[in-house]
User: Fold 2,3-bisphosphoglycerate-dependent phosphoglycerate mutase from Methylobacterium haplocladii.
Amino acid sequence: MERLLVLARHGQSEWNLKKLFTGWRDPDLTELGVEEAHTAGRWLKTQGHHFDVAFTSNLKRAQRTCSLMLEAMGQSDVETIRAEALNERDYGDLSGLNKDDARQRWGDEQVHQWRRSYDVPPPGGESLRDTAARVLPYYIQTILPRVMAGESVLVAAHGNSLRALVMVLDGMTTKTIASLEIATGIPLVYQLKADTTVESKSSLDKDIDHDI
Assistant:
């Protein structure tokens, strides 16, 4: 039984390029983002992966990344489920602001705390803890059962919704998660054990396969 779970952050978006806080706003992919998604799909195909189901958010940058990855794999007919629970964290009042402008307004330390702390939300927005509070129940109730049934599952989502998942999968703490950055368009490939813990992990950029 394979029990394959692949996590992929969407390719570069138009607002990533402009260094804007995005959150639940809905910009599309850039040309580079499209190529990142295609590259991710091609790499997964070379690894011999074939998905039974894909999950993505309600935001088009993740949806399009998911579609482009599957297209590059020749698997466009895979069942794809969209869920608001997998959306990026809501950046509240920061949404649409340039990150450098935000630092000038509130200071480097405050903006860093909003971006990287586990439990300090930006004004009107969500902390990573808040994001995890919706992502993890959805993972446990909806995604994980399909993985444990032996299906190969793709999750194409966002930096922070995936950080919430990786924190649990990799056994990270509320302190160590602060340093984790998930790159755009880089699939993280997990093989799970029968007890739902991680047996092995590999990724496109490192192409490693080691016991956790």
About this structure: Confidence is low (pLDDT under 50) at residues 207-212.
